[in-house]
């Protein structure tokens, strides 16, 4: 399979995952241009892809670098990033349940966004994207041990932040 066909197939398989990753990573709702940049860079670098990791892991590595570059550009221009807000609510919920669900999601997102970048990164990759420790390590350029230790610390810190947010009452 040639490079174009391979990237096209990966776009169909992993495009929404890359989009979700970039929304999380940047906190911006509109990341379509960044998704496009990821797949353009993947196409340019497809010859360097050795298959030692899954395509999804390789694409997340590219997406992370693209996001970091974009954040640097925006910081230089002093633009304010909008925060990600989940619009996904199951259709079988009552309006009251949807309000509580959105509040819970907002609280969880608020807690996560108060964590330092490394904690947010590892939580997203391991918990939200369900990557293995080895895959997350590859995306982040860390050792597996560092991923596991950081995940443990991130969960502990997130609990603490949640309890602070909710008046010291843990659930």
Task: Please tag this protein with its features.
2 domains, DNA-binding, RNA_pol_sigma-70_dom, sigma factor activity, DNA binding, 171 residues, WH-like_DNA-bd_sf, Arc Repressor Mutant, subunit A, Rna Polymerase Sigma Factor, Chain: A
General description of the model:
Belongs to the sigma-70 factor family. ECF subfamily. Keywords: DNA-binding, Sigma factor, Transcription, Transcription regulation. GO terms for molecular function: DNA binding; sigma factor activity. Pfam families: Sigma70_r2, Sigma70_r4_2. It is a single chain. By secondary structure, the protein is an all-alpha fold. The protein folds into 2 domains: 1-84, RNA polymerase sigma factor, region 2, helix turn helix motif (Rna Polymerase Sigma Factor, Chain: A); 85-171, Arc Repressor Mutant, subunit A (Orthogonal Bundle), CATH 1.10.10. Helices cover 71% and strands 0% of the residues. It is built from 7 helices and no strands. It is globular and about 55 Å long. It starts with a helix and ends in a 6-residue tail after the last helix. Mean pLDDT is 82; it is low at 78-89.
Note the quaternary state here.
single chain
User: CATH topology of the largest domain, which one?
Assistant: Arc Repressor Mutant, subunit A
Largest sheet, strands/sense/barrel:
none
The total count of strands amounts to: 0
**Overall pLDDT level:** 82
Query: How many alpha or pi helices?
Result: 7
Estimate nothing, just give the exact number of structural domains: 2
Residues in helices, as a percent range = over 70%
- Span between N and C termini? 51 Å
State which percent range the strand residues make up. Answer: under 5%
Shape: globular
Structural class: mainly alpha
Radius of gyration over C-alpha positions, nearest whole angstrom: 18 Å
Order of helices and strands: HHHHHHH
Which blocks of ≥5 consecutive residues have pLDDT under 50? 78-89
Which CATH class of the largest domain? Mainly Alpha
- The CATH architecture of the largest domain can be named as Orthogonal Bundle
